[in-house]
Amino acid sequence: MVDRDPPPTWRAAEESRLPQDPAQRDYLCDYAALMEAVPYPSFLVDHRWDVALTNSAFDKLFQSVRPHPTALPDDNFLRFVLFHPDAAAVLEDHEPSWCVPLLAQFTAALAAAPEDEGLVSIRQEVARDPFMEAAYRYGVPHWLSTHGADAAERDGAVRTVRHWDPRWGHVRCRLVAESSRMLDGMGLTRITMILSMPQGAATGPVPGGEAAPLHQGPRLRAVPSLDQ
């Protein structure tokens, strides 16, 4: 008989954001093990882009990101893309390839749920940032008219990120969004960032050793933490 790995843990302050149904919680524990087996950065988000679960590859991709009160990549991915000063160091072509498409997705989410407090809060943050407000008001309509509404879908977009291994540099990143019956019932979507290795890149460890990930193994995450 194979021993079951210990389930991931979460902070007590996050209890209100996690499923109350024991079956859903148990499913997420098993789903965490599934995500950890994937070599690509992968994370679960809800309709507000609040992050519920990440794997170690995701943490490694963003391991150089400095602490921030509201915009850490494993707290709220949309806020990270829009407001974290380190986002552009990991996400290449930050404004046209990441900010504007995610703002287009946000526009659709807010239109579908205009009373949602979490989405309204993000809208208020956007309004306080002149650059992001201009992108929201003018950049998004222009981008949609050029690329079409389908371009704002989470699934299938191809973008570029800076790999954690300096020998890789900038790499192609395909975003794959998927769900399941259980995840859909919890309002969650899994996004996996398929990173393509450059031709001829070595696969051994980085000379001098590679940086340790922010955590070992999967964990459930929710609600931005002010002390990180």
What report would you give on this structure?
A six-stranded antiparallel sheet has the order 3-4-5-1-2-6. The protein is globular and about 45 Å long. It has helices at 22-36, 56-61, 77-83, 87-90, 94-112, 117-128, 130-147, 181-185, and strands at residues 42-45, 51-54, 158-162, 170-178, 189-196, 219-220. It has eight helices and six strands. α5 crosses α7 (130-147).
Any descriptors?
single chain, 228 residues, alpha+beta, 8 helices, globular
Topology:
Blueprint: H1 22-36, E1 42-45, E2 51-54, H2 56-61, H3 77-83, H4 87-90, H5 94-112, H6 117-128, H7 130-147, E3 158-162, E4 170-178, H8 181-185, E5 189-196, E6 219-220
Antiparallel strand pairs: 1-2, 1-5, 2-6, 3-4, 4-5
- Whole-angstrom Rg: 18 Å
Shape: globular
Biggest sheet record: 6 strands, antiparallel
What is the H/E order? HEEHHHHHHEEHEE
Give the helix tally.
Answer: 8
Q: What fraction of residues sit in β-strands?
A: 5-15%
Characterize this entry briefly.
The protein is of the alpha+beta class and 228 residues long. Helices cover 38% and strands 14% of the residues.
